[in-house]
Sequence to fold (154 residues):
Amino acid sequence: MKTLVVYDSVQGNTEKIAGAIGAAISETIGGDVQVQRPADVDGSALNTVDLWVIGAPTHGGRATPPIAEFLKRLPASAVEEKRFAAFDTRIPAKWVKLFSFAAPRIARTLRKLDGKQVVEPEGFFVDSSNPPVLLDGELERAAKWAREIAKAAG
Fold:
């Protein structure tokens, strides 16, 4: 099975989460697991992906521009009938819920391309410091979520 974890990261937190997800999927089901930024994804290989995991930091309730652009350019044929999961990083403040989060929007886009969602979108928390850092336990929680993805997709 070929898994592609596509992420954007501004402060490095989403990159750490993406790496933990990729490692856990690799350990759980093996296969070809790649973790890449959108600019590094080989367009000629898009249709060979069996499982997509896409994530971004939440900025103003949305994914960052590199992920938004990647999703816009992603051909339906690359996602149609393929399994996927979506994640984001976010601050845990209650007021942020007013704007929504990146992961549900990513998932909605992939469902519109006829992708098959295997788990609910997930958010991983950073503190509100400048620069933000992952809260304790989030890498472990990301690995656990990834194992759920692997079991549902495998």
